[in-house]
Amino acid sequence: MDKRRDRPNILLIMTDQQAERMRKSRGYPLDTMPFLDALAGQDVQFTSAYTANPTCMPARVSLFTGRYPSCHQVKCNAAAPAAFYSKDLLDVVKEAGYRTALCGKNHSHRRPEDFDFCRQNTHWGATDPKREGPSQKSFDRFLCSLDNGVSMGPSPGGTEEQLPYRNVSDALEFIDSADPRPFFLWLSFAEPHNPYQVPTPYFNLFPPDSLPASTPPCAGKGVRFSWLRAQWETLYGKERCDAVIRRCRSNYLGMLRLIDDQIRRLMGEMEKRGLQNDTIVVFLSDHGDFAGEYGLVRKGADLPEALVRIPMIWKGPGIEAKGDYEGCFANIVDVLPTLCDALRVSVPAGVQGESLWSVLTGRRGSGEPESIAYSETGYGGDYWSEEDGLPPVCRGVHKEGAFDCLNSITQSGQVRMVRKGQWKLQYDMRAQGHLYDLSTDPFEEHDLWCDPRFEKNKYELLEALAQKCLELTDTLPVPPDRFAVKRFPQSEEKGGDAE
């Protein structure tokens, strides 16, 4: 590490809506992200990492605050974040003397001006078109024309017009700025989230007819899955729907390879600058994508593994562990406390995540990370359905040919999930439950809730879920000058190494 600094740089690489399962190192038949797989093999990959909520904004607020949506109260993408947040990740690194940057998609509670350097790109292109050239502006207009849908042909332009390339170029500009302070860089790709599009040569890299088989439509998953499938059949035509979804999957996989190539480019440039030994790199996604499973794309329904499992890879100074780690569950809320331990600073009050630093450093003496996985969805109230006479916009129909999978029907209610070992339970506010054995049923096609052979497993998970929900009832951090609250031993506020 540079002797001028006693703290490492932090590079937080986030993709949007990346399905954890769709890489060769995770058992997928196609080699979608060879560079990232090589990185995971050399460093630490948490193979059981979960998002706090399979929706962009709730997950990103959880990343920064280390708190679950039921506590920070951002439960949908349309929520206006409240102003009551305690100290978050950006505050922590700023107080530790870091210069900060966002390159790419934001969609969190932090404003562009909160970063020292900010270049935003969304699913519709650059937010500051004055900085872009004619070919980039033309490509951005193409993105807007897709209405968050799918392109059935190659995208116009080449790699350099694509947002991942532009994000990495912006990141390198920030890294090269003359400033001796360590940097915190949030490199946030808006892909492989829809609109599903990709240029040549990526468009033909994974042809639709050569893709692995996916789970059949709706495979016993309930009314919201079948309702979503009906919307896609209405939008694309019942006879044509499966072909369009295969093209969505094909473009999605092409986007993964495009992102992989840009991560390779960035890491190569950092190595040229001698930064590879001075930088903690965290790679993760905010949530997953159906990507063709159950005859669906995007997201929206409940808490299946396809949506709640996320990739998570760590590398850098102080990280001694190597390879796949299957010994505990990780969550997006764990990033903040882990980086606090890495920087030897106190974990902010109210953080609900658990530090993974003892795992990463190979020292397990100060409490174990989570033995269960937990995620949640729903903005509250009872479930809505077509019978309630909702207007089209509340059913996700914004205009002819455009559909939003996050709508009043798919996002209403309250749904929680917990996983312990091979067993996973989903439960909602109507006391409707589902139980799955993921060791034999990874796509959750066979619900064991009513099977008397597994009553013991069901009640063990219900007990774990009840305990977790009670842990998360502290909706706001308590002002330290008014009350003293003893926290759980696994998440005590601390400074220094987790020993």
How would you sum up the major sheet? Answer: 9 strands, mixed
What name does CATH use for the topology of the domain at 9-217 and 236-371?
Alkaline Phosphatase, subunit A
Tell me the fraction of residues in β-strands, as a range. Answer: 15-25%
Kindly state the percentage of residues in helix: 25-40%
Q: Any idea what the CATH superfamily of the domain at 9-217 and 236-371 is called? A: Alkaline Phosphatase, subunit A
How many strands in all? 18
- Please state the structural category: alpha/beta
Shape: globular
Number of helices: 13
**Rg calculated over all Cα atoms:** 22 Å
Q: Which segments are poorly predicted (pLDDT under 50) over 5 or more consecutive residues?
A: 478-499
Q: Identify the strand order in the major beta sheet.
A: 6-5-4-7-1-8-10-2-11
Overall average pLDDT:
90
CA-to-CA gap between the ends? 22 Å
| Name of the CATH architecture of the domain at 9-217 and 236-371 | 3-Layer(aba) Sandwich
Indicate the CATH class of the domain at 9-217 and 236-371: Alpha Beta
